[in-house]
TrEMBL record:
It comes from Gracilibacillus xinjiangensis. This is YqzE family protein. Pfam families: YqzE.
Length: 60
């Protein structure tokens, strides 16, 4: 990415953020927090997920 493209992208993101009402931004953050994650993925990354897929493929 050229510097001009990056500055344009960041400017667009900032303007979009400032244009959205505060309650919508807060609602979006709360929804993101509510999305449930597997604790194994949260604590150890993708390795438990890959191991689980490997075991499922061996069984099936």
């Amino acid at each position: 990415m050229a510097n001009d493209d990056y500055v344009k992208y960041v400017t667009q993101k900032i303007v979009k953020y400032m244009d959205t009402p505060k309650n919508e931004r807060k609602k979006g953050r709360n929804e993101a927090k509510k999305e449930e994650q597997f604790y194994s993925n949260r604590w150890f990354g993708v390795l438990p997920f890959a191991f689980r897929l490997f075991l499922q493929k061996r069984k099936g």
